[in-house]
């Protein structure tokens, strides 16, 4: 065992020896500094990406299942009657889900499409989303001003609307939209007035949107689902590329299951129920719990790959330390011989060189941690790249730098300790 006094003496000698060659010591430690900093930045970027992906999925809830209407790729068949343009989830499907599946505690419908909305001379195309009163709460969409859609609005078929923050800024720059009336394109009918009662914060959901991709609830106008059903009806009419008509009851249904353990079997039951009435496969069943697990696995692999790539620079830094320490052993061969002749043991020589290596790696690791934290902060503030620094990533980066330093110094220290004292004294 090495006494505390001997260790302090070895550290003083190590620092003195490194200080005698400041430039060389600094360049040697630079590999560790950059390696630690790159590990921290890579892990911070990977952790931020993982957090954002999982947060979007978690907003939907682990005990929910999402049914989405998907437009068939084949054109409607002639002779289909009034419903030849109809597709997706119907009101009948919604009733079947609510009544036939005992594990379902709630089924929340939503319909979305694009409409021109204007206030005075300002006109913008917005995503119109008809929702029930619990939609904003269920999807963690915050109300910034005013209020959301309420049960009374549904019961009275009220012509009220809640705007997304970006939509409110576009239609009412510098104005308070609460209480003002916007006009919504009515298809083949006259424009429909809606009174603005609230403004929501911008939000992105991982499995929102009619396509099943991420949906951005920013440039959006929310209206009561019952009001949409009565005022706008099933037909969605557009004139973008000629006269187009679609017949859609419900764009999406968010099904809440009584327990997370019942989600898989409820999803299977939903698929079976939907397949009975939708032979053209125009309804997609998405399970956020499955997506959450896949996202966690993918992001974990992504973070490991980033960390491994950054860790290579630490290995390169360790090779640099070993190379320099081997050169130092050669330079100080005569010094080693003198110390051995004066009574120093092999472990004293080995400790001396190992301490110098650890001083290099420890100092480089500390500077690398500070540089990595500063770089991650700079990416977030200056380049607007999201980063998330976890305490474990700092500990891992610094710990690996110490381990690399220890392993890199063991061979040079062992070689120095095993030098023959007589041969060392003859070295010039």
pLDDT below 50 for ≥5 consecutive residues: which ranges?
208-213
Beta content comes to 15-25%
Biggest pleated sheet? 6 strands, mixed, barrel
Element pattern in H and E: HHEHEEHEHEHEEEEEHEEEHEHHHHH
The helicity comes to 40-55%
Enumerate how many helices there are, as a single number. Answer: 13
Major beta sheet, strand line-up: 2-3-10-5-7-6
Task: Tell me the span between the first and last alpha carbons.
Answer: 33 Å
State the secondary-structure class: alpha+beta
The count of strands amounts to 14
The total number of structural domains is 2
Mean pLDDT: 79
What would you report as the Rg, rounded to the nearest angstrom?
33 Å
Shape: elongated
Describe the structure.
The chain has 428 residues and is of the alpha+beta class. The protein folds into two domains: 4-56 and 295-426, no CATH class; 64-258, no CATH class. Helices cover 53% and strands 19% of the residues. It is built from 13 helices and 14 strands. A hairpin with a 5-residue loop joins strand 11 (235-238) and strand 12 (244-247). The two termini are 33 Å apart. Residues 208-213 have low confidence and may be disordered.
Write the layout of secondary structure elements.
Blueprint lengths: L3 H16 L2 H39 L3 E6 L21 H10 L3 E16 L2 E10 L3 H4 L4 E4 L4 H5 L4 E5 H7 L9 E4 L7 E9 L2 E3 L9 E3 L2 E5 H7 L3 E4 L5 E4 L4 E6 L5 H15 L5 E4 L1 H44 L1 H9 L4 H38 L7 H27 L3 H6 L2
Parallel strand pairs: 3-10, 5-7
Antiparallel strand pairs: 1-13, 1-14, 2-3, 2-6, 2-13, 4-7, 5-10, 6-7, 8-9, 11-12
Helix pairs in contact: 1-11, 2-9, 2-11, 2-12, 9-11, 9-12, 11-12
